[in-house]
Amino acid sequence: MVSDGISSLGRTELIFIDPGVKINGSYYQSTLLRQHLLPAIRSTSGPFFTFQQDNAPAHRARETVALLSAETPDFIGQHWSPNSPDLNLVDYAIWGILQERVYRCRIRDVDHLKERLIDEWHHFDQRIIDRAVGQWRRCLCNCIREKGRHFEHQI
Q1: Whether the predicted model's global pTM rises above the 0.85 cut
Q2: Which of 131, 124, 130, 122 is nearest to 155 (CA)?
Q3: Secondary structure in 3-state letters for the chain
């Protein structure tokens, strides 16, 4: 599994989770958020940023919500539509493009996959991220219009 953060100000490095690691609330809070994501986001964005995540179980754990509510300046989490993954910028606008680029060549093994991901992420055009960020408000309006149901066909 791979995690990252994106914004109009830049992006974090890719964060790789070792195979077999169970991503529960505790691991997500102590390892991914506190050790990796939040410091990387602050380094990229400074002290003022909006933190958004999807509705994965580790993300909606009570302790995770409390941590992010306390340690991020603007946290979108309590009101996430459970049936609308289309609101996640990385999922609807970034990973598909990255995946297409990574798999342009045959992947030999997990280490080669990591190399390809890192290389393509390093060369990923910030304008693609900026467009995704710019579309987010429209996606949010589509989500409201569709009453939280999928709306990917309208993006």
Answers
A1: no
A2: 131
A3: CEECCEECCEECCCEECCCCCCCCHHHHHHHHHHHHHHHHHHHHHCCCCEEECCCCHHHHCHHHHHHHHHHCCEEECCCCCCCCHHHCHHHHHHHHHHHHHHCCCCCCCHHHHHHHHHHHHHCCCHHHHHHHHHHHHHHHHHHHHCCCCCCHHHC
- What is the rounded distance in angstroms from the CA atom of residue 144 to the CA atom of residue 99? 29
Q: List, for residues 38-83, the tens digit of each pLDDT value.
A: 999 999 888 888 888 877 889 889 999 999 999 998 888 656 665 5
Q: What is the pLDDT of residues 124-152, one digit of tens each?
A: 999 999 998 888 778 778 777 877 776 66
What angle in degrees, to the nearest 10, is found between the helix axes of 95-102 and 110-122? 120
Q: Taking CA 68 as the corner, what is the angle to CA 45 and CA 77, rounded to the nearest 5 degrees?
A: 100
CB 135 within 8 A of CB 66: no
Identify any residues that bridge with 75 across adjacent strands, giving them in sequence order. Answer: 51
**Could you give the C-alpha distances from 95 to 46, 98, 100, 119, 132, in angstroms and in order?**
25, 5, 8, 14, 11
Nearest to 41 by CA among 95, 4, 79: 4
